[in-house]
């Protein structure tokens, strides 16, 4: 099987590097599947899972938005934050989910100072991390 070199990088440093047969990622325009030799492109990513398939093994990385850059021999995912499934602290994500839900519940109760869009994004990041850690994909 042909492979393509895949790197996931964040402001904190590299998170993932491997030769992969199929990369799936959640672009803002929908789910993308990238095979080796794909035409060059750049796509903005949504909060979601990146699936990295080689042989019978599929690894998952939780990505909190960013960009996917495809070149014939290399796929780079540049993310605000990214974690491999095994590095996710589920208790931390559950706590972040609870905090975000509490903020969102106060919507319409006169708490104009709360940034609901920010809470919605925090909730999406937390749910994504929980799903990736539990391999719910
Ligand atoms: P929290 O409120 O728990 O900080 P957050 O969604 O606001 O969550 P981010 O700002 O997206 O966190 O990430 C900050 C840093 O912490 C990043 O390096 C990210 O990879 C890491 N991180 C966040 N949540 C987790 C988690 N549940 N497990 C492991 N690493 C995490």
Structure explained in plain terms:
Belongs to the ATPase epsilon chain family. InterPro entries: ATP_F1_dsu/esu_C_sf, ATP_synth_F1_dsu/esu, ATP_synth_F1_dsu/esu_N, ATP_synth_F1_esu_C, ATPsynth_dsu/esu_N. Residues 5-82 form the ATP synthase F1 complex delta/epsilon subunit N-terminal domain. This is ATP synthase epsilon chain. The chain has two domains: 4-85, Sandwich (ATP Synthase, domain 1); 90-133, Up-down Bundle (Single alpha-helices involved in coiled-coils or other helix-helix interfaces). The mean pLDDT is 94. It has helices at 90-105, 116-133; strands at 4-10, 13-20, 22-27, 30-34, 41-54, 57-71, 74-79, 82-84. The chain is an alpha+beta fold and 137 residues long. Helix 1 (90-105) packs antiparallel against helix 2 (116-133). Helix content is 25%, strand content 47%. Adenosine-5'-triphosphate binds at residues 12, 64, 81, 83, 87-89, 92-93, 96, 122, 125, 129.
Compact overview of the structure:
The chain is of the alpha+beta class and 137 residues long. Helix content is 25%, strand content 47%.
Unique ligands = adenosine-5'-triphosphate
CATH class of the largest domain: Mainly Beta
- Structural class by SSE content: alpha+beta
Low confidence ranges: none
CATH-defined topology of the largest domain: ATP Synthase, domain 1
Number of strands: 8
CATH homologous superfamily grouping of the largest domain: F0F1 ATP synthase delta/epsilon subunit, N-terminal
Overall morphology: elongated
- Give the amount of beta strand, in percent: over 45%
Following the backbone from N to C, one meets helices and strands in this order, namely: EEEEEEEEHH
Oligomer: single chain
How many whole angstroms does the radius of gyration measure? 16 Å
The helicity comes to 10-25%
Mean pLDDT: 94
**Major β-sheet, in short?**
8 strands, mixed
Q: How far is the first residue's CA from the last residue's CA?
A: 24 Å
Keywords: ATP synthesis, Cell membrane, CF(1), Coiled coil, Hydrogen ion transport, Ion transport, Membrane, Transport
Family: Belongs to the ATPase epsilon chain family.
Subunit structure: F-type ATPases have 2 components, CF(1) - the catalytic core - and CF(0) - the membrane proton channel. CF(1) has five subunits: alpha(3), beta(3), gamma(1), delta(1), epsilon(1). CF(0) has three main subunits: a, b and c.
Coiled coil: 90-136
């Amino acid at each position: 099987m042909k492979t393509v070199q895949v790197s996931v990088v964040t402001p904190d440093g590299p998170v993932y590097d491997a030769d992969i047969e199929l990369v799936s990622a959640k672009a803002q325009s929908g789910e993308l599947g990238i095979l080796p030799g794909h035409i060059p492109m750049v796509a903005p990513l949504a909060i979601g899972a990146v699936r990295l398939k080689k042989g019978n093994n599929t690894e998952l990385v939780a990505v909190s938005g960013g960009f996917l850059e495809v070149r014939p021999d290399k796929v780079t995912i540049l993310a605000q934050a990214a974690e491999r499934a095994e590095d996710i602290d589920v208790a931390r994500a559950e706590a972040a989910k609870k905090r975000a839900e509490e903020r969102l519940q106060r919507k319409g109760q006169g708490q104009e100072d709360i940034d609901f869009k920010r809470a919605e994004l925090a909730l999406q990041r937390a749910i994504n991390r929980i799903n990736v850690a539990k391999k719910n994909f």
